[in-house]
Amino acid sequence: MFPLSLVNAGVGKPMRVEIKSGESYNGHLVSCDNFMNLILRDVICTSAEGDRFWKLPECYIRGHSIKYLHIPDEVLDLVNEERQNRAMQNRNNFRGRGRGGPGFHRGGGGGGRGGGAGGRRPYGHHQQNQQQQQQAPQQQQQQPPAPAPQAKA
């Protein structure tokens, strides 16, 4: 799970941001961009020493200056639930077996009784098959009939 997706899931939720200078900002997250620049509303800013406080209607925090983000547990739970739901949907929405599974696909044949050749055939294989089929009846006619087995008394 990426930090940016976690922060985006917290839009509208209260959050505390501590910046590198030591100041902390408590407020509701309005938006977050790809550089993790944040906009908070109804903000209470606390000095680095913790002795001064300011109330701000809205503030912009540059992503580069962020040291810590304190995200509520409910946002973490929400993100985990969404991830599990997405995984369940992906498991249920598969379409077929993909390439390489058993079945009819490129280079087919070769799976049933008798083995089969499968794959590509060399150039002119149709002519070879025809020649073999023509020679087979001729060979059967040339062979003498086999003698019948005799019973022993």
From TrEMBL:
The keyword Oxidoreductase does not apply. One of its GO terms (molecular function) is RNA binding. Residues 2-75 form the Sm domain. One of its GO terms (cellular component) is spliceosomal complex. Residues 99-121 have a biased composition (Gly residues). It is found in: Nucleus. Its main location: nucleus. Keywords: mRNA processing, mRNA splicing, Nucleus, Ribonucleoprotein, RNA-binding, Spliceosome. One of its GO terms (biological process) is nuclear-transcribed mRNA catabolic process. Residues 144-153 have a biased composition (Pro residues). Residues 127-143 have a biased composition (Low complexity). InterPro entries: Lsm4 (IPR034101), LSm4/Sm_D1/D3 (IPR027141), LSM_dom_sf (IPR010920), Sm (IPR047575), Sm_dom_euk/arc (IPR001163). Binds specifically to the 3'-terminal U-tract of U6 snRNA. Belongs to the snRNP Sm proteins family. This is LSM complex subunit LSM4. The gene is LSM4.
